[in-house]
Amino acid sequence: MSWVTYRFTEFLDLSTCPMPTVGLACLIHKTKLQAVHEYFWDRLNKEIPEFNGASNVLLCTDEETSIVNAIRKVNHDF
After folding, report:
1. Strand partners, 26
2. DSSP strand E in the chain: where?
3. Which residue among 25, 31, 37, 67 is least crowded, i.e. fewest CB within 10 A of its CB?
């Protein structure tokens, strides 16, 4: 399973009340094929076009080659 999450920045980031992390999209897969992840990122970009050009996006991965290559191929700005 691969997840895309985001920080809900409408809340203050205080030690007593941290900003919640919210699930945006998930991909359930049997294998980590690049083509599957390309499809996932392509769908995400079609649903949220502002995502690819956003300057405030930080992506963290486990550096799985197929995932990294898919992100680079589909999201040209990363």
Report:
1. 3
2. 2-7, 21-27
3. 31
Question: pTM of the entire structure?
Answer: 0.77
Residue 29's domain comprises 2-74
* Residues with Cβ within 8 Å of residue 40, at least 6 apart in sequence: 2, 25, 27, 70
HSE-CB for 19 with a 13 A CA cutoff: 11
Spell out the residues 6+ positions from residue 36 whose beta carbon is closer than 8 angstroms to its own.
27, 29, 66, 70
26 pLDDT more than 90: yes
Chain length of the chain: 78
pLDDT in tens, 34-57: 999 999 999 998 998 888 778 888
